[in-house]
Amino acid sequence: MGRRREEEVDEELLAKLESDDAGSDKIRVKTPNKRINEMFAIADQILGGRRIRAVCGDGETRLARIPGKMRRRQWVREGDLIIIQPWDFQDAKADVRMRYTKTQALYLSRKGVLPEVVDTFGMGDDTASEDDSGIWEASDKRSEPEPEPEPEPEEAEPESDDDGEA
Fold it and tell me: Facing residues of 82 across strands?
């Protein structure tokens, strides 16, 4: 059997989403509805039997169920950004409501909408690149040779006279 193709980021669509947004705070992608307790999550592990382990935006790990309607149309893979809705009567379990494409997830990450727990797309804030440059500058400063402390003079031990004089 062949391997599944890795999903790629559609640069044109990403540019279109970001250009539509240039002057507004409006998000062009569906976001979780907080009123019905939906939240962002990352598909951590595919368990089989339409179940996945998901790391949620509130920091908890839940067992999530993929509904049949979604299972037939969209495949959920490890590392995908999804929307889940925890069950009212059993908080450790949830239902998967939606799966984002890589392009949509990258867009949400760049907009700063994702909580830090689920923002694995590396684009949350552009401060990461600024922090990296600070690290390199600091390491350059450390690479300068530090002045070595002067060696302390050793105490001279009294020498014994072995000339045969007694």
Answer: 41, 99
Give the residues across from 93 on adjacent strands: 63
The pTM of the full predicted model, rounded to 2 decimals, is: 0.65
Q: CA nearest 31: which of 88, 115, 94, 92?
A: 115
H-helix or E-strand spanning residue 96: strand 93-99
Specify the amino acid at residue 40: F
**Cα 163 from Cα 113, distance rounded (Å):** 88
Q: What is the distance between the alpha carbons of residues 138 and 51, in angstroms, rounded to a whole number?
A: 46
pLDDT digits (tens, 9 = 90+) for 122-139: 654 444 444 444 444 444
**Residues 34-92: tens digit of each pLDDT:** 999 999 999 999 998 899 999 998 989 999 999 888 777 778 889 999 999 999 999 99
> Is-contact 21 28, C-beta < 8 A?
yes
